[in-house]
Amino acid sequence: MKILVLCYEYPPLGGGGGRVAQSIAEQMVARGHAVRVQTAALGWHSIRETLGGVDVFRTASGRRAPDTCRVHEMAAYCATSFCLTLHHIRTWKPDVIHAHFAMPTGLLAWAVHRLTGVPYVLTAHLGDVPGGVPAQTGTLFKIIGPFARQVWSRAAAATAVSSFVQELAERAYGRKVVRILNGIDLGDAGAEGPVAGVGTPPHFVFVGRFSEQKQPRLFIEALARLHAQPWQATMIGDGPHRPAVEESIARHGLGARVRLTGWLDAPDVQRVLAQADALVMPSLSEGLPIAAIEALKHGLAIVASDIPGLRDVLADGVNGRVFPVGDTAALASRLGALLADPSALHAMKHASWEKARGFDLPRIAAEYEQVLRSVVDQRNRP
Do 225 and 102 have their domain in common? Predict the structure, then answer.
């Protein structure tokens, strides 16, 4: 197959959704398919490059930051990518379009489909479906609702990266949506299970953007309640809430116990996770975060907000614990219980490692390949 991937952010731009798009694109190349990606570039300079066997075309979009994309920058991506996407279709002749993020990328896929007839497959992540991140996108979906319904109704197939996103999409658009979980390359990590026991002291880690959605400051406030117990913590990431996090660390005198790394390259993130005991995710909402799957790979317990988007990776009391959204005292209580019972923490770590097998990237890629192939076969059927 020739697969044209449309995605408004693709590494090194973007977060987990972009990394998912990249991993699937590269897996399709490994399976013998030809893949092109039409994505955005920082600023106003277009770039063409080859990454992992994938031809990546980045068009000028005016995007200012690699980890944040504003609505007008998303719109600029669609506008500046429109003519080049048509050019791909008319000269390269892809069999199918794979659009990551139903909004805004789905609008681009829908527009070129109307002009060329090339079928498209949607993959929804979280914020691109109504109810995923209501505080951020609720008003926007009221405005673009009619266009979104057209995008979903015209798609030859639709997928979602978690059970929660699948339910939201099916409820909003009344059509079948296939759940295909995010996957990672398990490699040889933890081939014999979590080799190490619980660290001395236990090591908690936070991975993600320092934003309202991720609630990094709540993590610090919970740790402050455990001042008398032994622990260490690492926070990987950056963002607008970093000053508040730094202030909270200083106010509670935790500077010697909490390490802020900023954004790290993937190998460095892996090294931190391999040395940790538990991933802490106090988020207000999630789709299916890659960080949580990476935690499973390294045999980390997960302590997280009780939100639907994490139920594919976290079973309360089995491989981690949940707590009510925004409840600092409850988070501190869950962490304190793990500190007080290292054997229970170790059992949860092992349960996470076992759960990781369900997210093996080649198996996940095969599910995407099946969906894409069925669309192409249907198109070619007399």
Answer: no
DSSP string of 54-114, one letter each residue: EEEEEEEEEE-BTTB--HHHHHHHHHHHHHHHHHIIIII--SEEEEESTTTHHHHHHHHHH
> How many structural domains are present in the chain?
2
Q: Hey, what are 118's tokens?
A: 């090339």
Whether 199 and 275 have beta carbons less than 8 Å apart is answered as yes
Domain that holds residue 345: 203-359
Judge whether 221 lies within some domain: yes
172 and 137 in a common domain: yes
Q: Evaluate whether residue 191 is within a structural domain.
A: no
In terms of C-beta density within 10 A (0-12 exposed, 13-18 middle, 19 or more buried), how is residue 195 classed? exposed
For 261, the token pair is: 């790394």
User: Measured on CA atoms in the order 283, 285, 291, 295, is the torsion positive or negative?
Assistant: positive
CA 311/CA 342 separation, integer angstroms: 24
- Closest-CA residue to 24 (of 216, 188, 181, 172): 181
pLDDT (tens, 9 = 90+) of the chain, 382 residues, equals 999 999 999 999 988 899 999 999 999 999 999 999 999 999 999 999 999 999 999 999 899 988 888 889 999 999 999 999 999 999 999 999 999 999 999 999 999 999 999 999 999 998 888 888 776 776 777 787 888 999 999 999 999 999 999 999 999 999 999 999 999 888 755 445 555 789 999 999 999 999 999 999 999 999 999 999 999 999 999 999 999 999 999 999 999 999 999 999 989 999 999 999 999 999 999 988 899 999 999 999 999 999 999 999 999 999 999 999 999 999 999 999 999 999 999 999 999 999 999 999 999 999 999 999 999 999 888 7
Q: What is the DSSP string of 148-214?
A: HHHHHHH-SEEEESSHHHHHHHHHHH-S--EE----B--TTTTBTB--S-S-SS-EEEEES--STTT
Q: Tell me how far apart the alpha carbons of residues 25 and 97 are, in angstroms, rounded to a whole number.
A: 12
Rounded CA separation 24/5 (Å)? 10
The answer to whether residues 210 and 164 belong to one domain is no
Tell me whether residue 192 is in a domain: no
Is 374 found in the same domain as 330? no
Classified as helix, coil or strand, 245 is: helix
Same domain for 307 and 170, yes or no, is no
Co-location of 215 and 324 in the same domain: yes
